[in-house]
Design a protein that fits this description.
about 450 residues; alpha+beta; 7-stranded antiparallel beta sheet; 6-stranded mixed beta sheet; 12 helices; 17 strands
């Protein structure tokens, strides 16, 4: 991940690969509060959102495993509100399909620009698709307009430019492609027209994604090379869990879904029962309560929890913050176990240190994908490979780097890296000076007076 003028990073060059460029199976990122851990995760969210601007997100296939699910994503506070919420979701969804509210990539870039920065925003990502490395880069001008986009990958065993798009001094959009990019001359003519019309406000990937929602898969495979479709498929498979937003396939706590989605919810019920049965001594399982609502169902999850020597049904939204966060993480941990790439921000929020440590130890041993997390739970450092544990360090003039602890200080098997991190050996920890609370209170009272 390479970023310029992105959120809190003037420049970031983050390498998550090991020897010979092989992706590390897991990475844990540590740092002070406000150091930029969430911003790293947001860069992946930005990448995913950038491919959705033209289609308005309607073509997202990260829900492909649950294509019929359209849960409202709200937490049920009062079941009587659900009808209102459901209709509200419908209205918003209908509006989102109109050009009037569709977000372009310029306004998206504006959200992620470093406050007060000048110059270009750059976002570059390298990933592995079908055993070959793909690199994708976007550049934005000072007005946040997209001014450059390119993708490189292996074609017939050779590293090549798959495509590049830019605008010349006269504002004309120039699209250069590998000779194998287009498979159909007719479609090439159509696609170049779309690029001329939309590029700059939308990326080429977003344009192609919009096309995949218009045409069937067979047509797209006959029209475009497998490399570009494979790259889009890879981006679809990425899962991002941010603490302040939800990007999972469904809100497991409750909501509305089509009646035919009940089978998928039943499957999550089985998975959650097994998961919480292993992680909590007082929970024997979970179950959904379903209510018919026309061609929709209203569903609510209950924990079967032992309280005062009796099992009682506790609504998920009344459970503790840690339990609810663990429930939220379950679909993402399942994706990692399936072999996909998963990003989780603030893995440990509200969850007991030992529960996080013991759960992650087992999941990392059996996971088939790549898991990148941010955390404040230092107990994970006791067993983590030092080359997989990263810290955000301040270097010169407020600039930052994100590097593995193995590159900062020598580590040995008998070292307690959790203690070493807390003692400042690897940096990335807060340094607190003397706090005079009496002076702070007096200062407040002086200004506030009788207010």
């Amino acid at each position: 991940i390479v970023l310029d003028n992105f959120k809190s990073f003037g420049h970031l060059d983050l390498d998550l690969s090991g020897p010979k460029g092989v992706p590390k199976p897991y990475v844990m990122i540590y740092g002070e509060n406000g150091s930029g851990k969430t911003n790293i995760m947001e860069s992946i969210q930005f990448l995913r959102r950038s491919t959705d601007t033209l289609s308005g997100g309607n073509a997202r296939s990260d829900r492909k495993k649950d294509p019929q699910l359209i849960a409202d994503g709200s937490v049920i506070i009062d079941p009587r509100l659900n009808g209102i919420l459901s209709r509200f979701i419908e209205v918003v969804s209908e509006a989102a399909e109109s050009d009037a509210v569709r977000q372009d990539i310029c306004s998206l870039a504006r959200e992620y620009r470093m406050i007060g920065s000048e110059g270009h925003i750059t976002a570059e990502f390298a990933f592995v698709v079908d055993g070959g490395e793909v690199s994708y880069k976007m550049r934005f001008g000072e007005d946040e307009r997209l001014i450059g986009e390119e993708m490189r990958c292996s074609i017939n065993g050779r590293r090549s430019h798959l495509y590049s798009v830019s605008s010349n001094d006269g504002g004309k959009v120039v699209l250069k492609t590998h000779r194998s990019f287009f498979r159909s001359p007719d479609y090439e003519s159509e696609a170049r027209g779309l690029v001329s019309r939309y590029w700059g406000m939308h990326s080429l990937l977003s344009i192609i994604r919009s096309e995949t929602s218009r045409y069937n898969r067979a047509f797209m495979e006959e029209s475009l090379c497998p490399e570009i479709l494979g790259a889009l498929g890879y981006l679809d498979s990425l899962s991002v869990c941010l603490n302040k937003s939800y990007d999972g396939p469904i809100n497991l706590e409750g909501g509305f879904a089509p009646a035919e989605a009940r089978k998928v919810l039943d499957a999550y019920q089985v998975a959650a029962s097994k998961f919480f049965g292993c992680t909590y001594t007082d929970i024997r399982g979970v179950h959904y309560d379903y209510r018919d609502n026309g061609d929709m169902i209203r569903y609510m999850l209950y924990f079967e929890k032992r309280i005062n020597d009796e099992y009682r049904d506790i609504p998920a939204h009344k459970e503790s913050l840690g339990t609810r966060n663990l429930l939220k993480l379950l679909p993402f941990l399942m994706e990692y176990s399936r072999g996909n790439v998963v990003f989780i921000d603030e893995l440990d929020t509200g969850i007991h240190d030992k529960l996080v440590r013991d759960t992650m130890k087992q999941i990392l041993e059996s996971g088939k994908g790549q898991l990148i997390v941010t955390s404040h739970n230092t107990s994970l450092l006791r067993n983590a490979n030092p080359s997989n544990a990263y810290v955000i360090r301040y270097i010169d003039d407020g600039a930052k780097e994100v590097v593995p602890i193995s590159s900062i200080a020598k580590t040995q098997k008998n070292h307690n890296n959790a203690d070493r991190y807390m003692n400042g050996v690897f940096d990335g920890v807060p340094y607190v000076s003397y706090i005079d609370m009496e002076d702070i209170v007096e200062s407040f009272d002086e200004v506030a007076g009788d207010a």
